[in-house]
Write a structure and sequence with these properties.
heterodimer; A: 325 residues; mainly alpha; two-stranded antiparallel ribbon; 2 strands; B: mainly alpha; 1% strand; disordered N terminus
Chain lengths: 325, 294
């Protein structure tokens, strides 16, 4: 067990090093940030001063070492356009994104699970075909298109829903959330539903597949033979066994949700980190772009690490059979 | 042996395939779009990217309008006065091109990796599959997003990003099938005849992997087109000089609030039709060719 955990940590570390290299060298090849600061009258000495000020006169590998050193201290540099530390900008915008992602997760689970159970119980019924068709559509149709249609239908045509922004927020433990105001929920609904669709499709598929597998297991037959009510069999015995893979996959997909949040936030002008990234790219705000990418990668690697270790604790087959693929 | 495999896994595959009405519709729709993409320069009323043919005075006309020269704008015009129908036909061309080319390159890379891993086994297999595992543990949209942010816009760049996110799927699938095939008797027989490794790999094992590859390729192409559209919509994918369907939708997004729905919605419907038809085709191919693939 200890060996597995140590190996898994080393692997995560390796991925992080590779990703920082990729992100840093990749981003530093594009664009020239000097011109953002230089006014049109800026002559060569003035340009040199800016270059020196930004640390761009050092060789690139030295810039990288400085960058990693700062990274370890939690300093990702100052945003070129905002003039404040990139990290604080991300942390400031993060609650909006997490709130959106969390709501999407909840919607996906609460709608997806019952639908998946229904489709798994009667796989040949017409209703199941509709559910599976819906899940295929939600999985394959680009979500920006769904968001667009929602805006056309509910905002432009019907005028029921606001198309942009976050609405009123209340401060909860120092974090602004729109989850607890009526206006905030009103603004949150469309982006959250749009973002939830892919996860919902995944939950439906996994639940249905799990149902098909678990329903024929011996312990379910025994439970039935014991006269346990069908409702309890479904709600307890079946659910407990299909929830493990669903929660795992959802945990692993969280990185994808944050990435898709970029799309949803752009459509609905939701002021989260994703919208910030797109704005930063438009003006080539390198520190902010690097900070965002690294932040997402680190979050994703850590999340994966935690899930893998939790999973290996829950299911011994993972760590014992890991090498015999 | 290889000849038999190339003509399909069993006689009558076509007939089985065509038994599903939705698959037939999907096939017609998808081939229709492919034909439109190929014929784009000959069937459009104007070349929407030739500035001499576009009149800014005709911008934002609703569907069914006419230009002052009498040219019909069946689907209206966009903010720059481009004929939406022509712009969409070119958009289909670019979207399909990006999807197909990236799919083919990823197929090539993934197939070679998968075949080598399955045939060589041992540490080569282990190493390659670890890389595949690692790659697949990252969500595609995340990897693609990071790559296009780093690389910038461009047809070649988006194709590269799409290949990077797709090859691992092909590698894993091909390895799985090739492993099963390598254990079959005909491979033993070929080895017994002292045929070369490459010959066994490409003439004996590969043809038997083709049906599975076809299924994965169809699905991946749909995913690639969708991903490209998403990235282009964000302004990260293709450059404005090569507007794919995603970019057309993004252009129309600005006019949405003022009720000029056609600039966004029409290319969106086409994108939807392409992706859904490709997915239905892939589903049906899977059912007919390879019921074991999940």
């Amino acid at each position: 067990m200890t060996e597995f955990i140590v190996k898994r940590h080393l692997q995560a570390l390796l991925v992080l090093v590779v990703m920082t290299l990729l992100v840093f060298f990749g981003v530093n090849v594009i664009g020239n940030p000097v011109y953002i600061f230089a006014s049109s009258e800026c002559d060569q000495p003035c340009l040199d001063a800016i270059i020196k000020d930004l640390g761009l006169d050092l060789p690139i590998w030295e810039q990288y070492l400085v960058f990693v050193g700062n990274l370890l201290e939690g300093d990702l540099g100052n945003s070129f356009t905002h003039g404040v530390p990139a990290m604080s900008l991300i942390l400031e915008r993060l609650p909006a994104t997490l709130e959106l992602a969390f709501c999407a997760l909840v919607i996906a689970l609460f709608v997806g699970l019952p639908l998946g159970v229904a489709a798994g119980l009667r796989p040949n019924a017409f209703s199941s075909k509709i559910i599976m068709g819906f899940s295929m559509l939600a999985f394959s149709v680009p979500i920006f298109w769904i968001g667009l249609i929602m805006i056309i239908v509910f905002s432009v045509t019907l005028g029921w829903m606001p198309a942009v922004g976050r609405g009123d927020t209340v401060s909860v433990f120092g974090v602004d959330l729109s989850l607890f105001t009526l206006d905030g929920l009103h603004h949150l609904a469309m982006p959250a539903i749009t973002l939830s669709l892919i996860m919902m499709a995944m939950v439906i598929r996994l639940t249905r597949a799990g149902m098909r597998e678990v329903l024929f297991a011996d312990y379910i037959k025994f439970a039935r033979a014991n006269g346990i009510r069908e409702r309890r069999i479904l709600g307890f015995h079946v659910m407990r066994n299909i929830l493990i893979p669903i929660v795992t996959v959802l945990g692993m997909e969280f990185g994808g949700v944050i990435a898709f949040a970029v799309v949803v936030e752009s459509i609905f002008s939701w002021p989260g980190v994703g919208k910030m990234l797109i704005d930063a790219i438009a003006v080539l705000d390198r520190p902010l772009i690097v900070a965002y990418l690294l932040f997402v990668v680190i979050m994703f690697v850590l999340l994966n690490l935690v899930i893998d270790i939790l999973y290996s604790l829950l299911d011994p087959r993972v760590r014992l059979g890991g090498n015999s693929s | 042996m290889s000849g038999a495999a190339l003509t399909g896994p069993a006689p009558g595959v076509w007939r089985v395939f065509l038994r599903s009405p939705s698959a037939v519709v999907a096939l017609i729709v998808f081939s229709g779009f492919c034909a439109i993409a190929l014929l784009a320069p000959w069937i459009t009323l104007q070349n929407p990217y030739d500035l001499a043919q576009v009149d800014i005075m005709d911008s934002l006309l609703p569907p069914g309008s006419e230009s002052w020269t009498g040219m019909p704008y069946y689907l209206g015009t966009d903010g720059q006065g481009r004929d939406m129908l022509s712009a969409m036909i070119y958009g289909i061309r670019i979207s399909l091109l990006v999807g197909v080319v990236s799919g083919l390159i990823a197929l090539l890379v993934g197939t070679i990796v998968g075949l080598v891993a399955a045939y060589r086994g041992g540490w080569v297999d282990n190493l390659l599959m670890r890389i595949v595992d690692l790659q697949l543990s990252f969500p595609t949209i995340l990897v693609a997003l990071i790559l296009v942010v780093i690389l910038g816009r461009g047809v070649d760049k988006i194709i590269f990003a799409l290949v990077v996110v797709q090859w691992a799927y092909f590698a894993r699938t091909v390895r799985g099938v090739a492993l099963v095939e390598s254990a079959r008797e005909y491979v033993d027989a070929a080895r017994g005849l002292k045929l070369g490794h490459l010959r066994i790999l490409f003439l004996h094992i590969l043809p038997n992997c083709l049906p599975t590859m076809l299924v994965v390729a169809t699905m991946q192409m749909a995913a690639a087109i969708s991903l490209e559209a998403t990235l282009s919509f964000l302004g990260l994918g293709l450059p404005p000089t090569r507007p794919s369907l995603g970019l057309l939708i993004a252009n129309g997004f600005d006019y949405l609030q003022s009720g000029r729905y056609w600039i966004s919605v029409l290319p969106g419907l086409v994108l939807l039709a392409i992706i859904v038809s490709a997915n239905v085709l892939g589903d049906r191919l899977r059912d007919t060719l390879n019921p074991h693939l999940s």
